[in-house]
């Protein structure tokens, strides 16, 4: 294998001259799986939007604080 540096232009020229001896192409169909629709909700505690994963009404941060019984001041004071 030749590990020497070759300029971009020279490499492209070599590939074009080599034609099918180096590469080929063909049309293919690629199946792309459908992604589930994301449901967005607004946290009932802080008002931040989040991806709903079930029927919870709290964002992850508020849910963690709630489970640890931590209060936050949303009034800014």
Write the layout of secondary structure elements.
Layout: H1 8-18, E1 39-42, E2 49-52, H2 60-67
Antiparallel strand pairs: 1-2
Can you summarize this structure?
It is built from two helices and two strands. By secondary structure, it is of the alpha+beta class. It has a domain at 29-77.
| Secondary structure: helix percent | 10-25%
Major pleated sheet: 2 strands, antiparallel
Q: How would you write the strand order of the largest sheet? A: 1-2
H/E series, N to C?
HEEH
Q: List how many beta strands DSSP finds.
A: 2
Distance between the termini: 68 Å
Annotation field: number of helices: 2
- In round numbers, the mean pLDDT is 84
The rough form would be described as elongated
Unreliable segments of 5+ consecutive residues? none
Work out the radius of gyration: 28 Å
Structural class: alpha+beta
What proportion strand? 5-15%
